[in-house]
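In response to reviewer comment 3 from the previous cycle, which asked for concrete evidence that the modeling workflow produces usable outputs, we include below a single protein chain processed end to end. The sequence was submitted unchanged, and the resulting structure tokens are shown without manual editing.
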Amino acid sequence: MKIGTPRIGPWDRLCVVRGAAIVVLAAVVLAALVYAAKVTVAPSTIVAALLAALLSVTLMRYLRARPAKPTDEPTPARTLRAHPDLLCAHNSLSHSLCQLAGQGDEILRDCAAVRLAAIEDELRTLAKGRVVFTGTEAWRTAYERILRSPGLGRYFSVAWLRSEDYWRDAPGRHSMQLNYDLIQLGVRIERTLILNDFFWPPGATLPAKVICQWIEEQYKRGIVIRMIRESQIADEPELLADFGLYGHRATGQLDLDETCRTVRFTLDFTPGAVSLAEERWRRLLLFAVSFREVLDRRARTR
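The workflow returned the following structure tokens.
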């Protein structure tokens, strides 16, 4: 809860004014009596009066410096004031809901309630630090933006190849070119490829030619390439995934269907998700072999 700025309440003001008035009245009465009676007032009485006045002043200063009572929850306007875009969205949503409340048809309001529940769930996910793209390639815009963000020094990628068309369509080629551009800008990119036995048969030194050309192009452009056979991690299904680590800022997980079409892409900015992805990356490295080592091994056997 937020502590407000120090202030004095109406009741406190009334108490202080009454106290001060009583002290002043008492001092005036005492002075009048002393003057009329021509009597000598004991020093202790004067000290007591002064102490009373001092106590009144001290009480007033204390009440003025006392922090206000904590508020339960900050108002949306106060919270969103520093974020004009969010404040504008809040105002627009509030206005639309007021308009919806004026609609008289019960079926319309019931349909709206169902749609609003879905919107509420999505908004709750966003508030937790996750963005989910479903059934669309629009995620690549967010992917490109975060990779081009200032301060990004490294990008770790895990690619699970189940089809030779993986990242070879137009959006995929555009994203690959982005990787090459980042290499030129000094970003370190490491990619671990998970290949099934069809593309990298047991006993074969190199993957199948159609895949090997794609891998070799990345290697020559400066991307650090490692490879794992899918059968090596068959007993650890949590490692079978397409995901990326964008520095320490966020992690993204890509879910594809059997034709390599996007089912869902989740961009997660929460520290817990980033830590979990880093741990998964470290575990994969235990099984991986570098593409450079594979090339050296082939050269020695010739």
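Residues 1-6 have pLDDT under 50 and may be disordered. We consider this sufficient to address the reviewer's concern, and the full set will be provided in the supplementary archive.
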